[in-house]
């Protein structure tokens, strides 16, 4: 059985932000992909985790916990989010190994249902280490999506220029034409 189509307006962001983007607004109504295991299966497939992690109730519960922890850190403050993210990270670890191909690091989980939640929290730490100022919320006032700004200048403002950026431009144009 294949997973259903991903209904989210923004996909392909780093794992931590893609998890945050499982909640979005559509015509003023908040949508949530992680309301059930079917939505979880869609998210796992979108992130290449469907072959290694089960779309069950435990995984769903842990992933929601990770989403709220990351949201607290991104939208709140590091002080607020740190203990929540750390609580998720306590369920896994990195195992360093030497393989025939060279050095390798593999995540390990005592309970595999924590895997996707832990991987998202770990990815958030990686983004913080690389460029914390590039983790951004969309600048559109009605949008709740987040993105990792990979633009050369680091000046991206919108989750999508085609959606939120275009709405903002249209609003400014309408305001200017109304004034004249």
Write up this protein:
The longest helix has 20 residues, at 57-76. A hairpin with a 2-residue loop joins strand 1 and strand 2. The protein has helices at residues 15-20, 37-46, 57-76, 78-89, 115-130, 161-179; strands spanning 23-26, 29-32, 92-99, 102-109, 135-137, 146-148. It is an alpha+beta fold. It has a two-stranded antiparallel sheet with strand order 1-2. The protein has a two-stranded antiparallel ribbon with strand order 3-4. It has a two-stranded antiparallel ribbon with strand order 5-6. It starts with 14 loop residues before the first helix and ends with a helix. The radius of gyration is 18 Å and the shape is globular. The model has no long low-confidence stretch (mean pLDDT 91).
């Amino acid at each position: 059985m294949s997973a259903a189509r991903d209904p989210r307006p923004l996909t392909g962001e780093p794992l931590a932000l893609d998890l945050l983007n499982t909640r979005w607004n559509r015509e003023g109504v908040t949508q949530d992909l992680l309301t059930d295991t079917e939505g979880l299966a869609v998210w796992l497939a979108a992130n290449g985790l469907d072959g290694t992690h089960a779309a069950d109730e435990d995984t769903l519960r842990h992933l929601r916990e990770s989403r709220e922890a990351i949201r607290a850190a991104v939208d709140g403050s590091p002080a607020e989010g740190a203990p929540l993210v750390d609580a998720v990270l306590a369920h896994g670890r990195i195992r360093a190994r030497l393989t025939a191909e060279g050095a390798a690091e593999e995540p390990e989980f005592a309970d595999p249902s924590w895997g996707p939640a832990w991987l998202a929290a770990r990815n958030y730490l990686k983004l913080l280490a690389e460029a914390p100022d590039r983790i951004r919320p969309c600048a559109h006032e009605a949008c709740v999506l987040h993105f990792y700004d990979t633009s050369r200048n680091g000046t991206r403002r919108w989750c999508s220029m085609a959606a939120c950026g275009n709405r903002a431009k249209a609003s400014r144009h309408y305001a200017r034409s109304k004034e004249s």
